[in-house]
């Protein structure tokens, strides 16, 4: 039975590596997959999903105005597709997540989405919020903070190395810009005052 999956994590947890390995598993068994990534993320080159460990593959891209149900229907008319993989799924719109859910239900194709859960201010991305609401199954891809605890948050650092407390939600970057932290160290870097014990 086809399902909509959401694999979420913080930065640098290996989401793209997991995606590429999962797609390879299908291809190795003679099945075809269809890969999509956000058009705005060109760190590995336009239309390319790549991992920090050095593996990558070409992919089609999506932008906020794209109708993904129509795109997937067209792709399935070209021939069999065992699974659809979507990287940088936090950049999907809410409407696009509904389009993916419709593709799962009506076109009977499994779709695996990989993306960040929250931004550098601890707020849900639009696509991630919709996936948390609509996905049939959710799986956390884990990474660790510098203290060894599970990282659940991410900070964006400025040129001086200090955590930024404001800015646009979307700013593409890598290790030079972002760091994954546990909640306690995220709060410390964001210089949040401790909660009032009497409140």
UniProtKB/TrEMBL annotation:
Q: Name one GO molecular function term.
A: ATP binding
Enzyme Commission (EC) number? 2.7.1.21
Per UniProt, where does substrate bind?
170-173, 178
In this chain, Zn(2+) is annotated as bound at 145, 147, 182, 185
Entry-linked Pfam families: TK (PF00265)
Q: Per the record, GO CC terms?
A: cytosol
GO terms in the biological process aspect are:
DNA biosynthetic process; thymidine metabolic process
InterPro entries in UniProt = P-loop_NTPase, Thymidine_kinase, Thymidine_kinase_CS
Which Gene3D superfamilies does the UniProt record give?
3.30.60.20, P-loop containing nucleotide triphosphate hydrolases
List the active-site residues.
Answer: 88 (proton acceptor)
Say which domain of life the source belongs to. Bacteria
> What keywords appear on the UniProt entry?
ATP-binding, Cytoplasm, DNA synthesis, Kinase, Metal-binding, Nucleotide-binding, Transferase, Zinc
Give the reactions, separated by semicolons, that this protein catalyses: thymidine + ATP = dTMP + ADP + H(+)
Chief place of localization: cytoplasm
Which positions in this protein are listed as binding ATP?
Answer: 9-16, 87-90
Catalytic EC class: transferase
Where in or outside the cell it occurs: the entry states:
Cytoplasm
Question: In which family does this protein belong, per the annotation?
Answer: Belongs to the thymidine kinase family.
Its quaternary organisation is: Homotetramer.
Q: What is this protein called?
A: Thymidine kinase
Q: Which organism is it from?
A: Pseudooceanicola batsensis (strain ATCC BAA-863 / DSM 15984 / KCTC 12145 / HTCC2597) (Oceanicola batsensis)
The gene name reads tdk
């Amino acid at each position: 039975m086809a399902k909509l999956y959401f694999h979420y994590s913080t930065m640098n947890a290996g989401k793209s590596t997991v995606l590429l390995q999962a797609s390879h598993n299908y291809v190795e068994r003679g099945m075809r997959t269809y890969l999509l990534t956000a058009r705005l993320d060109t760190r590995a080159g336009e239309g390319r999903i790549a991992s920090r460990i050095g593996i990558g593959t070409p992919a089609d891209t999506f932008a906020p105005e794209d109708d993904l149900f129509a795109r997937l229907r067209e792709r399935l008319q070209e021939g069999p597709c065992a699974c659809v993989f979507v990287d940088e799924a936090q950049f999907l719109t809410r409407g696009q997540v509904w389009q993916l859910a419709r593709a799962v239900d009506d076109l009977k194709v499994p779709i695996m989405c990989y993306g960040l859960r929250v931004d550098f201010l601890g707020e849900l991305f639009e696509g991630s919020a919709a996936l948390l609401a609509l996905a049939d199954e959710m799986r956390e891809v884990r990474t660790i903070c510098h203290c060894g605890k599970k990282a659940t948050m991410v900070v964006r650092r400025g040129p001086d190395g200090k955590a930024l407390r404001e800015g646009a939600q979307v700013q593409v970057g890598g290790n030079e810009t972002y760091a994954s932290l546990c909640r306690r160290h995220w709060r410390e870097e964001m210089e949040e005052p401790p909660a009032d014990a009497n409140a």
